[in-house]
Write a structure and sequence with these properties.
Blueprint: H1 3-29, H2 32-58, H3 73-101, H4 109-137, H5 140-169, H6 174-201, H7 208-221, E1 227-236, E2 239-247, H8 254-272, E3 275-282, E4 294-295
Helix pairs in contact: 1-2, 1-4, 2-3, 2-5, 2-6, 3-5, 3-6, 4-5, 5-6, 7-8
Protein name: Ferrous-iron efflux pump FieF
Organism: Kushneria phyllosphaerae
GO molecular function: cadmium ion transmembrane transporter activity; ferrous iron transmembrane transporter activity; zinc efflux antiporter activity
Length: about 300
Amino acid sequence: MSTTMKIAWTSLLVGFAVLGLKTLAYALTGSVALLSDALESMVNVVTAVAALIAIRVAAMPADDNHPYGHHKAEFFSAVLEGVMIIIAALLILREAVTGIMDPQPLQLPLMGIVFSLTATLINAVWSRVLIRIGRRERSPALVADGRHLFTDVVTSAGVIIGVGLAMTTHWWLLDPLVAIIVAINILWSGAQVIRESLSGLMDEAVPPDTLELIHHVIVVTGEGAVEAHDVRTRHAGRATFVDFHLVVPGETTVFHAHEICDRIEAGLRQALGEVRITIHVEPEHKAEHKAADIVFD
């Protein structure tokens, strides 16, 4: 079983544990704010299942119907997560409005805070693990899940503070007001997740620092070539796609041109990990000179 699969399964178990703690906190107190926290954790469980499925699909090898692989499956998971976050926020807003119209005193608020705080600490640790491993394994689904959990940690902290203030001041209107703040924050988080996932589905280029690294590798490993132009990149899940035109001197043999391409490909794989490379070799009269992306000395 791959690292991403193990992490996805663990995320599901953590999600169920946190959901149980937050549901218990709400059941003990009747707090709308704690209910909002529990609803967000329910979204975490659903999206953990979606991420698990997406990672399994993304890991499938290329086939006749999907010659470039199944990497984009993870972006669909991240989009679903964004949609679920927004739905949870709308549900929270509905409950908060009801609470504002008829604020109720909280039952056993201290016990509720203890259970909610425990769940928040678990999420804080796990969100850092997800983001770190997701970036290392280049898994958009894990990174999206980790960022959502981190948002959950921040909002949960706000909920705990709000419930604590309501408990000490007996101003019970604070409870639904905190829930509204949580819902607005969750809406923003969901919109960000969707935006980032759609950029991957639309074949957005790699970040500038990664593109700079690609250019550097081509310069270092492309000795014997004249220039490289029309460098294009995109990313899909863990895979980075790179294609460009490589201009070689007119007298270069096919064998020598192939050797240059092999060096460049090896360098890019070492620098980027999972990468798909397409190099179109051209004779010297095809050089674009000043318009080229890379000109070799």
